[in-house]
Amino acid sequence: MRAAAAGREVPHPPGGRSRRLLAAARQRYAEDRLAEAVSAGTRQVLVFGTALDTFIAHNPYRDVRVIRVTEREGGIVRRSGDSAPGDPAAARQIAEFVRFAPGFEPGDPVFAIRLDDPYRRDSGHAAADTDPGSGPACPETTATVLRLLAGCPGGAEIVLEVPRAGVTGVARAVRDTGWVVQEDLSADTLASRYLEVSAGQDYSVEPRIVRARVAH
User: Fold this and answer.
1) pLDDT at 125
2) Can you tell me the distance from the alpha carbon of 100 to that of 24, in angstroms, rounded to the nearest whole number?
3) Do 43 and 104 contact (CB within 8 A), yes or no?
4) Which residues lie across from 158 on neighbouring strands?
5) CB within 8 A of 62, min separation 6: which ones?
6) Which of 187, 176, 185, 191 minimizes the C-alpha distance to 33?
7) What pTM did the predictor assign?
8) pLDDT above 60 (res 210)
9) What is the pLDDT of residues 102-147, one digit of tens each?
10) Residue 32 gets which letter from DSSP?
11) Which residues of 8-17 are buried (b: 16+ CB within 10 A; e: fewer)?
12) Is the dihedral of CA 78, 81, 84, 88 positive or negative?
């Protein structure tokens, strides 16, 4: 409900429809950055989680491999004694990951996308393709993804969703594994770029979107 104070409208958090529109804006942002990467020569995409179904079903790039990775399939390699907690993944861990991601070539540049699926979340379904607590809102799992890709010799770029509760943990993982942040957008900034934002709409409680890169 909107409220007024001193004759001015008090910002209000987004409802279900607005959150879904904002999630669509995050996907649009990811697809725009992917188009830039493809133009620069990247020919493989890793999609972590259950979002971007439409893009995967209608991949517009005939010569680009799109590989979906879900935690339930064991596709995210957990930390082992092969590498320290803050280091990029070791060769054995990467080799283990490849078993669960047919077509992925760690020696080639890769563009990765890790976003939540708001339609499944808002419908009350826990993502069937992820372990409990392992979705994009979980900093530990996001850190594992960053470590894994940082260890791939071909270099990587990623667009990932960062909820407010995970900002500190994800920022630490980005720093510790050698990623360089190219862009860090608040939900308000993203909304102003892709949506018609209504007066009084406050997106500050919604996830940020981060684009980062690691090169070898």
Assistant:
1) 42
2) 28
3) no
4) 112, 212
5) none
6) 185
7) 0.80
8) yes
9) 889 999 999 999 997 554 444 444 333 333 334 444 556 788 889 8
10) H
11) eeeeeebeee
12) negative
Exposure string of 45-69, with b = 16+ CB inside 10 Å and e = fewer, is bbbbbbbbeebeeeeeeeeebbbbb
Token pair listed for 215: 């090169």
The C-alpha torsion from 174 through 179 and 184 to 190, rounded to 10°, is -100
Interatomic CA distance for residues 69 and 98, integer angstroms = 10
Cα–Cα distance measured from residue 192 to residue 186, given in angstroms and rounded to the nearest whole number:
10
**Confidence check: pLDDT of 1 > 60:** no
SS3 category, 208:
strand
Write the single-letter amino acid at 104. Answer: F
Give the position of tokens 């409208």: 9
Q: Which of 209, 216, 213, 170 is nearest to 190 (CA)?
A: 209
3-state secondary structure of 19: helix
Helix (H) or strand (E) holding 45: strand 44-48
What's the one-letter identity of residue 3?
A
Token pair for 6: 């001193």
- Residue 20 and residue 144: Cα distance in Å, rounded? 27
Helix, strand, coil % in the chain, rounded to nearest 5 = 35, 20, 45
